[in-house]
Amino acid sequence: MFEKILIANRGEIAVRVIKTCQRLGIQTVAVYSEADADSLAVEMADEAVFIGPPAPGESYLQLDKILDACRETGAQAVHPGFGFLSENPSFPAALEKAGIGWIGPNVKAIEAMGDKIRSKQLAAKSGVSTIPGADGEISDVDTALAAAKAIGYPVMLKASAGGGGKGMRIARSEDEVREGFVAARNEAKSAFGDDRILIEKFVEEPRHIEIQVLGDKHGHVIHLNERECSVQRRNQKVLEEAPSPFLDAKTRDAMGAQAVALAAAVDYDSAGTVEFIVDKDKNFYFLEMNTRLQVEHPVTELTCGLDLVEQMIRSAAGLPLDVAQRDVGIKGWAVEARLYAEDPYRSFLPSIGRLKRYEMAAPGALGAGELRIDSGVREGDEISLFYDPMIAKVIGYGETREIAIDTLNAALDRLYIEGLQSNAPFLSAVLEEADFRSGRIHTGYIGEHFPDGFAGTAPREDQLLQMAAASAYMQEVLTRRAEHVSGRISPLSAETTREWSVLLDGRRFEVEIEMHEEGSARIWVPSLNADHLTLDTSWRPGQFLFDGALDGVEFCIGSKPGEDGFQMRHRGYQATARVCSAKAADLFARLPEKEKADTSKLVISPMPGLIVSVDVEVGQDVKAGEALLVMEAMKMENVIRAEKDGTVKAIRIEPSQSVAADELMLEFE
Hints:
Number of helices: 17
CATH topology of the largest domain: D-amino Acid Aminotransferase, Chain A, domain 1
Strand order of the largest sheet: 13-12-9-10-11-14-22-20-19
Structural class: alpha+beta
CATH class of the largest domain: Alpha Beta
Strand content: 25-35%
Number of strands: 39
Number of domains: 5
């Protein structure tokens, strides 16, 4: 077994690998860029080596710098994590030449499976079901148009190299092929240094289901069942679970057998994933193979009872698998949410910045389930423009799918972040949505259920009641504290009753509250038919999470005091709660609404980024929906389109220019 391992990665996956190494008694070496100098991974590792500027192309993608770090520290092997150099065959080849171990599959497997064109051909040869498509690389737009016509719309344009949803576009017309081909090619070149594109038939309403495989250097290959990864946005996975709520045992066995056959064909000797598209009738087609550890591997670990990082290390060290196919079962259910620094209320645009506050439920038992959190950041850390905007992977686990989902949602309720936005409200909204709860999902689920983007969810009556009760309690405690300091009333323990008017974004609720001992009160909310409810809570002034129970029903609400009242969030619903006297509430009702500034003629940068291209010029007439410019942020290209017809008056930016969030870019007449 290795004594010292270098992790050629950053963030949560670096932390994840370090944790397993610590358990196994293996020393670790972290590498870091300027942006990651104070990162959690650097703090946890036994040694750390600086490798350059923040841009990945100047640090984490510099193979020579990784090799130098190995030589400098005496690391015996390298774990690549995922992304960066993890699927670059030149990396393990260079390590082998230097006498350093590679914790991943052999070069032959990486080369064969890393090329989507070649991997599809090999899959077909190995008896794996493959999706119809053009044979070979698509070199230009005209070839793409001809191939799309021959295959039949809709089609999928995707990068031959890489993965993670980058360099992928769905096209349903000739115009979308033209636009999508250029965008996919640019993204592929930027992300992977390889702009080759292939075209396949796009299966309508498909499920994305993948099989985890595991092999060793002694010819043994097994599968660890499936993961359902169908809830995606822009081809990026949002929620993953194991097992799939869709598969039956027969289909699972067939998919597993084909995945093992493909892995065996390339002598696969590490952890890897064979991805399939599955239609409504459970017909499945090979999509690609990822020759690395997947982001969503925790759901497999929880349901199979294995540590995949440990298995990778064992295989790389030449040890045989210590588990056989007959030993692999499915225990319980796990659901993973990718918590990202992005604003779901602004089209999921990246929201970089510093985590001024970052509170999360502690891993372990939570309700009827268990909580696991994989994160590479702490309070005070910064989410950088240069890397993936992931904050954490939050995983709920339980005996049933319902328990796993409820555990995950309870954890998201207990999340509090300041300094940037997160997609937590959106994740919670999906976890509560009826079709998701019943397992009726596909890769177009988000577009189908949120066609106009995410604007929050309408409040349920129980949420209104919880917010009204919580805000009245908080106001009562703060008022009693102020009055007690001035000596005007008895301490908090006095059982007196007070009436408050709670204004929740236009809704008014009369709340009567009778305080008992500290942390307990009786609540009346007549308009919600809520009488004589017992409220128990551990909330104290200064806390930003109101954790409580109404008549034994537990809930947790994010709550931050502001100038206009308490800023409250529960799952997909957000509201400002103003707590005041009935007379003050009458006066507030008479106040005119503040008019919003007119920005309809301005194009403001929605996020920090790099201008890739400006597609209009001064004086040009544009139509609503027409592309104005392309921005790159978080390794993804974003097309900024006109919201309405108009004429370009001024252009304030140019290609290759960096822009900040809310920076003026274009003006219309």
